[in-house]
Write a structure and sequence with these properties.
Layout: E1 17-18, E2 47-49, E3 53-60, H1 92-99, E4 103-110, E5 115-123, E6 129-132, H2 134-137, E7 142-147, E8 153-162, E9 167-172, E10 194-199, E11 209-226, E12 234-242, E13 250-251, E14 254-256, E15 262-269, E16 275-276, E17 282-283, E18 286-290, H3 291-302, E19 310-312, E20 315-317, E21 320-321, E22 382-384, E23 387-389, E24 392-393, H4 398-402, E25 409-413, E26 416-417, H5 421-428, E27 436-442, E28 448-454, E29 456-458
Parallel strand pairs: 1-13, 2-5
Antiparallel strand pairs: 3-11, 4-5, 4-7, 5-6, 6-9, 7-8, 8-9, 8-19, 10-11, 10-14, 11-12, 12-18, 14-15, 15-18, 16-17, 20-29, 21-24, 22-23, 23-25, 25-26, 25-27, 27-28
């Protein structure tokens, strides 16, 4: 592919959320190797949009504060590639100067429509392992990454993800000598600590934005969903809350302590990153995944240790259309489809199918009790205790080849009964392209059907 993403091109507006990264050198401390992943170049982008999450509810969990002071270490990162850690308190501009070279712009192309969404990532190893939010790459059929440190653009492949924790790891092709981020110890973060959020606010590319603030609370639980559409609801827990003015486009960027260490991955914020405080003043509400938690999931992904929530490698694809403007499954075309770990509402839809298409609206916030469904939700397909009714299948997909059609009701997948789209999503997490699974359904005439399908390769979930 000859066309590459241009970070400073006003014709290619995009955005993303911010998130944390962790330190890494030529190899990850502890003995495992991050190398060995690559990807094919994406098609030319046509439409661009921002990535953000609506915070629809917040619940404060038991928040314990540890001792302050210099937090953590560089986690064994080699001096030749890791950003420097200061022994004295730094200003926000000094922090940015140190950490910016270890950040990347992540630009995802989605489906046949060529829609483009952008986010941020943090470089973990000098050969191009990058940590980001899962929602930044969800629905991507190809990914381009521009390294802030050297200005070069790379193609990338998804190594794995945990959609339930909104964490993903990607690998840049043919990258070497990249600057890597130094990680702090998020378990030592305390309320009142000064922090700086760095990312691609507004998706403008180029020099990352700087948002200074303080830690407001620890161990927060939120229910978040797509800005504007209100679908793709997910619950995230044990988050760091900050008043740093995080914006759409910052997703996957770094929340950094006063010594230049990454202690969190910026993930969600309230509408316009502001809400009303008890005093009547406008207050920022933003949330980051603690770096210790993100690092643990990333280790599992790189080690190839899949689980009921962690998917490794390419996404398995079933190809069931969710239909309508509310669809957001990770299929191609104008409506979504069931992908591995994605399901109805599990990933970004393409074209008119919905998903993370935020325009210029930014984040939005609604009062709530923190309740909600984890993962993809059930939008786009009918659900009941007797199965999941679909609106169709994608032409040539495994579901289409098996004979499923609009109005059919799926009753079981891989031998497990399903009553919601989330059930299907969770079942498919552990499967990969080429795997064979059984699927049972009741057609519109009331006849029970069962077929064995071979899962195809689909977009990231």
């Amino acid at each position: 592919m000859s066309q590459t993403y241009e970070p400073n091109n006003p014709e290619q507006e995009h955005g993303h959320l911010a998130g944390p990264g962790f330190a890494g050198g030529a190899g990850y401390p502890g003995g495992f190797d991050w190398a060995g992943y690559a990807s094919a170049p994406p098609p030319p982008p046509r439409r661009n949009h921002k990535r953000g999450l609506i915070v629809t509810g917040v619940v404060a969990l038991a928040a314990g504060a540890a001792a302050g002071g210099l937090i953590g270490s560089s986690h064994g990162v080699t001096a030749s590639t890791a950003t420097a850690v200061s022994k004295t308190v730094l200003s926000s501009s000094e922090i940015a100067k140190r950490v910016d070279p270890a950040l990347v712009d992540v630009v995802s192309t989605e489906g046949d429509q060529g829609a483009v969404a952008a986010g941020t990532g943090i470089v973990l190893t000098s050969d191009g392992t990058v940590l980001t939010n899962n929602h930044v790459i969800r629905g991507a059929t190809s990914i381009k990454v521009t390294d802030v440190g050297n200005g070069r653009t790379y193609t990338a492949k998804v190594v794995g993800y945990d959609a339930s924790k909104d964490v993903a790891v990607i690998k840049l092709q043919n990258a070497h000598g990249l600057r890597t981020a130094a990680l702090g110890d998020s378990s030592s973060v305390r309320t009142g600590d000064s922090v700086t959020a760095l990312g691609n606010a507004g998706g403008k590319g180029g020099t990352p934005s700087i948002a200074a603030g303080r830690v407001v609370a620890l161990n927060q639980s939120i229910t978040a969903s797509d800005e504007g559409s209100g679908v793709n609801t997910e619950q995230l827990t044990k988050l760091i809350e900050t008043n740093a003015n995080i914006q759409p486009g910052d997703s996957g960027g770094a929340l950094v302590n006063s010594y230049g260490q990454v202690i969190g991955m910026d993930t969600a914020a309230s509408s316009g990153a502001q809400s009303q405080s008890e005093s009547g003043q406008s207050a920022v509400q933003a949330y980051a995944i603690p770096i210790d938690n993100a690092e643990s999931i990333a280790r599992q992904i790189v080690d190839g240790q899949g689980s009921s929530t962690v998917h490794i490698g390419a996404t398995a694809f079933l190809g069931i259309e969710s239909g309508g403007s509310s669809s957001s499954g990770s299929g191609s075309g104008d409506s979504g489809g069931f992908g591995g770990g994605s399901g109805f509402g599990g990933g970004s839809g393409f074209g008119d199918g919905g998903g993370f298409s935020f325009g210029d609206g930014g984040f939005s916030f609604g009062q709530g009790d923190g309740s909600g469904t984890s993962g993809g939700g059930t939008s786009g397909g009918g659900t009941s205790s007797n199965g999941v009714t679909i609106s169709g299948t994608l032409s040539g997909s495994p579901a289409d080849n098996a004979g499923l059609a609009q109005g059919d009701t799926i009753t079981s997948v891989a031998g497990q009964s399903v009553s919601s789209a989330t059930d299907i999503s969770q079942i498919l997490v552990k499967y990969h392209p080429g795997d064979k699974i059984s699927i049972s359904w009741v057609d519109q005439s009331g006849q029970s059907q069962t077929a064995t399908v071979t899962l195809a390769s689909g977009p990231a979930a």
